[in-house]
Amino acid sequence: MEFFNFPLEIRLQIYNSLLIYHDTIIFRACGGSLLPPLYLPQDHDLHPALLRLNKHIYNEASPSLYSHNRFQFPDILTPGPWTYSARIHPFLDQIGHHVALLRHICISFHVFQSLEEESACAHGRNLDLIGELCTGLATLELCLPADGVDVEPISEQNLDLLDARLKVMPSPVEVRVVFQVYSGGALADERVKLRERGWTVAVNVLPKKT
Question: Which domain of life is it from (predicted)?
Answer without folding.
Answer: Eukaryota
